[in-house]
Predict the structure of Amidase.
Amino acid sequence: MNQNDPFAGLDDGRPPWDALGAFVPAPQPQIGGAESGRLKGLRFAAKDIFDIQGFVTGCGNPDWASSHAPAGAHAPTVRALLDGGADLVGKTVTDELAFSLNGQNHHYGTPTNVNAPGRIPGGSSCGSASAVAGGLADTALGSDTGGSVRIPASYCGLFGLRPSHDRISLEGVMPLATSFDTVGWFARDAGLLRRVGQVLLGGAEGEASRWRRLFLAADAMALATPAVQAALAPHIDRLEQRITEAVPVKAAGDDVSLEQWMWHFRHLQAREIIATHGAWIAEVKPTFGPESQERFDWAHGIGEEHVKEARPLREAFAKRLGDLLGDDALLVLPTAPGIAPRCDADAEALREHRSSALSLTCIAGLSRLPQITLPLATVEGCPVGLSLIAPYGSDEDLMMLAEAFCQAPEERRDL
């Protein structure tokens, strides 16, 4: 660890009120929101890749923190929530440079998943999910490039949204892979998720009755464990009763698998990550944890030959899915292939689980479409999310449907 780490010498540095390890071990911004607004009286946290004026944006790595000056201004998303009346309570732990789905930071620890004890919270927005699930914040900002809001939301039993790509400003947010990066957020209930969305997306109410058609991603469902499929089935039935019978489709398209699309996503993401951070890594030679080091080393090895065909294929994939959904259809799928892995799972097991998870999350990432995850079921006492992917730009209507659908949810079915 860098000896100039500004987080060092803080007695572990954690705020005394953070028993979950959700917040970065550093001085915490405590900023009151506006005197009035839609979010007045609510507390929010921000993943430590969002700029907060006067504070170092640490991005989950001590060497990043020590090589960057304090932010000169709030990220517009942080400013929007403050202007909406919400109070900022602190900066939350992220995986190093937001490049993981696990939520296990080598330097700052693994935030507690209160709804699945002994299991990972998911990443990279791990601290934000932990803080909201544990009641330390009412909502929290995260980012979602390859699933970093959707996966933690599923593991921690939260509502989470990855919005349509480019719907929300990424100014003042550390970039990872810019053609996939989005700002997302968490909440414990669908109504608050929508209220936060109104502030971040510009204020539109949304219309739950927009939706007329349903498609069930059969190949995505097949990636989930049998227990997850069984636990989600009654909630899919309820959704069909509300809208219409779901038509089974293959999300990947004909003669190709979701795993193949996952590799296209990973190669494209890797090229963008190195374009964004390669020069800093070469200059600073940061100390990464073993998992992060392995991932960045792999990304460095992805050349243009790996992506020259992936780029046009991605556009064809996005067009096909957009045409399928039109302006009134939803695609239903499991958010994650299973419940959160145990914190002590071996590296190979985590890699296999991550590949299956990315095979699910790459659908919205490649197509740039909004995806909401709903914490509707449990397996072995641990949360399981059901996801809906919607047409581009329909974020408000998607959140309105989620709120209406979950106003009086049935008791969660545990298997």
Q: What stands out?
A: The beta strands are 43-47, 87-92, 139-143, 159-162, 183-187, 213-217, 247-249, 329-334, 371-379, 382-389. The radius of gyration is 20 Å. The CA atoms of residues 21 and 111 lie 5 Å apart.
